[in-house]
Amino acid sequence: MRCPKCGNQEDRVIDSRSSKDGASIRRRRECIECQHRFTTYEEIERELIRVLKRDGRSEPFDRRKLVTGITKACEKRPISLEAIEKAVEEIEADLESNGGGEIPSHIVGSKVMEKLHGLDQVAYVRYASVYRQFQDIGEFLDEIKNMGRRAKASVLQPELFK
Questions:
Q1: pLDDT in tens, 50-96
Q2: CA dist 83 to 20, 45, 77, 119, 162, Å?
Q3: What is the pTM of this model?
Q4: Residue 21 shares a structural domain with residue 84
Q5: Structural domain range at position 23
Q6: Domain assignment of residue 160, yes or no
Q7: Closest CA to 30 of 21, 40, 38, 19
Q8: Is residue 112 domain-shared with residue 36, that is, in the same domain?
Q9: Which of 105, 130, 112 is nearest to 55 (CA)?
Q10: Given CA atoms 30, 63, 46, 117 in this order, what sign does their dihedral have?
Q11: CA distance linking residue 127 with residue 111, whole number of Å
Q12: Which one, of 21, 1, 19, lies nearest residue 11 by Cα?
């Protein structure tokens, strides 16, 4: 591992521990050259998922884009980074459990909408406005009215229809 301070490739591991519910390993390292300490994470290499876009293009699934989209929707809302990270992990695991491969972008978007609906209603409407490409205020109002009719999914009740 290259030291972020001096670029030296010689380091030693000071501490290792499980992180993110066992999905990764957090390692504290110390550079042999400059004694700078830094943290690295080791994760399982996941099966390659491709996303089929609306225009027919196919691109590799990018976790960072998912995190960025959800973070923008949750901006200035009382939602912790841990909650966002957990939602992303759950979405990614769900996509992988459905066989990986090529997944239409609307499936990814609907999974994000499900998670945001349970996390925060304002973030949900923000994301919906971009995802569904709202053109005027009427579409916002319709979505807000529909939210009132739709109950939040309970973590204790399994989904009946997928």
A1: 999 989 999 999 999 999 999 999 999 999 999 999 999 899 888 88
A2: 12, 22, 12, 8, 23
A3: 0.61
A4: no
A5: 11-43
A6: no
A7: 38
A8: no
A9: 105
A10: positive
A11: 12
A12: 1
Over residues 104-158, the pLDDT tens digits come to 998 998 899 889 988 998 898 888 888 777 778 877 778 778 876 665 554 444 4
111 and 32 belong to one structural domain = no
Taking CA atoms, 15 is separated from 18, 41, 42, 45, 120, in Å, by 10, 12, 13, 22, 36
Q: What CA–CA distance (Å, rounded) separates 25 from 110?
A: 30
Task: Give the sheet arrangement for strand 58-60, strand by strand.
Answer: 58-60, 49-52, 101-104
Burial of 60 (0-12, 13-18, 19+ CB in 10 A): exposed
Residue with tokens 């042999």: 32
81 Cβ contact partners less than 8 Å away, ≥ 6 residues apart: none
Tokens describing residue 20:
């993110």
The answer to the question of residue 161 being in a domain is no
